[in-house]
Amino acid sequence: MHTINLRKDPISELQIQSQTPNEIPSVETVERPPQNSCQLETDLCRLRQPPKSHPLSLHILALLIPFSTLGTLARLGLQALAAYEGGGIFSLAYAQAIGCLMMGLTLRSKDSVSRFYPPLYTAITTGFCGSLTTFSGWELDVFEAWTNTARFHRSGFQNFIDGTGRTFFTLSISLASVAFGEQLAAGLSHRLPRIPPPNHIVQITITVLSIASYLAVFPAYFLLPTNFRHQATAALLFAFPGTLTRYLLSVHLNTLVKALPFGTFTANSAGTALLGGFTVLKNISHSPLSPGICSILQGLSDGYCGCLTTVSTFAVEVRSMKGWRGFWYVLASWSVGQLLLLTILGASFWTGRAKEQMTCTFN
């Protein structure tokens, strides 16, 4: 009997991107058999390597639908639960922390998840975690804290402290949650039962049901009470398109620039700009919009922009960068978002074309 000596090899960022284009795990070491041992134990090595799927296969794209829907509902639900008078933590922080925690858990369990069903890894990281967390919402939250759109009785310096605190708290809790999730997964890895992968028929059934889940969103929007539209159903119309856009950007752009994941950077910047534009339309000072249009704008803000941008992927990418690269990536992403909001929202507020409070009505 031959003994397999498992050594730890660091995986470079570009290697990771080629395997999972959207979610870049931190630079960790994974157990990988040496080449000589694989020649001796071919069958065992084949079992250790998770099966590969094309990043644009129908099974992966379809499974993004229900997971992006669940991520959006979880984010909206957590924000609603955490929005109460006298709260010590802003409501969006809970969604960011839980999404990053789930990301860390899934990253550390990548081999197990991919061996069970390869599309499931992308569905959890890109679909659920990416939709539960939102970069554009973070940027807007900071900008509104600095400009004091809620009209709290406080000084300009206190506005600065509030915006700065939301900036560093979100970044810190996101990075810490990813690390904590990885540690939890490491402790649970040997206790989880091994589940046989689904057969071909079950995989086709999963894909068909995933597509049907998106088709079911349309009757839910029109048949459920109208007050549900701005709260959830309108956002569900645009959740999957937002996630799909982010995923396609990451697949095609993340490997173009070695210095930073350009796909994620583009998605976060574009989503922040769009959110600023939708906010201006919802706050327009003249000719108020109809309730139906207001619901669609709210759905675009919560659904498309919320799922197009992500903090969980952003946090993992920051942790994977060595030296000062992570710092410059954070600074560039955050600064571009704030400058975009300053240009779009600030110009509209200060010229009187839009109010700082929402003028849209949903009834």
From TrEMBL:
InterPro entries: FluC. It catalyses: fluoride(in) = fluoride(out). One of its GO terms (cellular component) is plasma membrane. Its main location: membrane. The keyword Membrane applies. Pfam families: CRCB. It is found in: Cell membrane. GO terms for molecular function: fluoride transmembrane transporter activity. It comes from the Eukaryota. Keywords: Cell membrane, Membrane, Transmembrane, Transmembrane helix. The chain crosses the membrane at residues 56-76, 88-107, 168-189, 201-224, 327-350. It is a multi-pass membrane protein. Fluoride channel required for the rapid expulsion of cytoplasmic fluoride. Belongs to the fluoride channel Fluc/FEX (TC 1.A.43) family. PANTHER family: FLUORIDE EXPORT PROTEIN 1-RELATED. This is CrcB-like protein-domain-containing protein. It comes from Collybia nuda.
